[in-house]
Amino acid sequence: MKAVIPAAGWGLRFLPLTKEQPKEMLPVVDKPTIQYVVEEALDSGITDIVIITGRHKRGIEDHFDRSYELESILERGNKTEYLRQVREISSMADIHFIRQKEQKGLGDAVRMARQHVGDEPFAVMLGDTIYRSKVPVVKQLMNVHERTGRSVIAIEPVPREKVKDYGIVKGQQIEPDLVLIDDLVEKPHPELAPSNLAIAGTYVLTPAIFDCIEHTTPGLNGEVQLTDALRLLRMREEIYGWRFEGKRYDIGDMLGWLKTQCELALANPAYAAPLRAHMEQLLKEGR
Ligand code: G1P
């Protein structure tokens, strides 16, 4: 299975940090966010990845490319561990880049991958969503797709006041973690939301989605929404929602990013003990 990683958004909520730097390159502890996404794909057996980029996204291409100057400096300096890491990043996967010339929405970004994906089911993994789970979330979806043959979306319940930030699904629970989706709506008003089950940012889709995107007119914010295209797909074939095992880290805004940094730094044995001691000291001092 191939994966499409849409990473063309402006990152407005992170300005001025993202004036020149893609938001997908924002660090989370010791790696840029998008590296976590690529690693999740690799851990799931996906090795062919298309990243949809746009203007100001050069940093992503450079990150996954070879850096001969850096490698020779590290080699000369005998910095073998750094050298290993730098080489590993550039040989991770078969990564392709497609530039979305105009940012016309998530649905349009996915459409750009049509030719590369062909007539096969494929994964969509948002470039700013990371998880910690026993089995990678995209692999969980691939497993459900294998037994249903249909599109599967990772979903999770969110507090009512948060439904306006997500695509929301409505459906019937047919297994403890599996929902047969009846309807989907992009970022509804909390009073109009059909449920509190949010689209979490990872999908396995059948290729029929591409035709549905072609027939989707611009929706919320004048953008071609993937959620609206899924609504059309739902009329042709079943779509499932999977309540995944694991924790999703919301890096969609500044506070979410800062919280994720703290949590993942505290989960990293290299930094956990001194960082915890520092935080406890700060709290004790009432800072
Ligand atoms: C996108 C999707 C939305 C989904 C969300 C998950 O919105 O359009 O349906 O719930 O990702 O993060 P965005 O956050 O890009 O505005």
Structural description of this entry:
- Helices cover 36% and strands 25% of the residues.
- With 287 residues, the chain is of the alpha/beta class.
- The chain has 2 domains: 2-252, Spore Coat Polysaccharide Biosynthesis Protein SpsA, Chain A (Alpha-Beta Complex), CATH 3.90.550.10; 253-287, no CATH class.
- The strands form 3 sheets. A 5-stranded mixed beta barrel has the order 8-11-9-10-12. The protein has a two-stranded antiparallel sheet with strand order 2-3.
- It is globular, with a radius of gyration of 20 Å.
- The protein starts with a strand and ends with a helix.
Major sheet: size, sense and barrel closure? Answer: 5 strands, mixed, barrel
Rg over C-alpha atoms, rounded to the nearest angstrom: 20 Å
Task: List low-confidence stretches.
Answer: none
What separation lies between the terminal Cα atoms? 49 Å
Number of strands: 13
Proportion of strand residues: 25-35%
Q: What's the CATH C level of the largest domain?
A: Alpha Beta
Q: How would the global form be characterised?
A: globular
Q: Are any ligands bound, and if so which?
A: 1-O-phosphono-alpha-D-glucopyranose
Helix content: 25-40%
CATH homologous group name of the largest domain:
Spore Coat Polysaccharide Biosynthesis Protein SpsA, Chain A
Structure annotation, total helices: 11
Q: In terms of structural class, how would the helical and strand content be classed?
A: alpha/beta
Q: What's the rounded overall pLDDT mean? A: 94
CATH topology label of the largest domain: Spore Coat Polysaccharide Biosynthesis Protein SpsA, Chain A
Encode the helix/strand succession as letters.
Answer: EEEHEHHHEHHEEHEEEEHHEEHH
Number of discrete domains: 2
Name given to the CATH architecture of the largest domain: Alpha-Beta Complex
The largest beta-sheet arranges its strands as 8-11-9-10-12
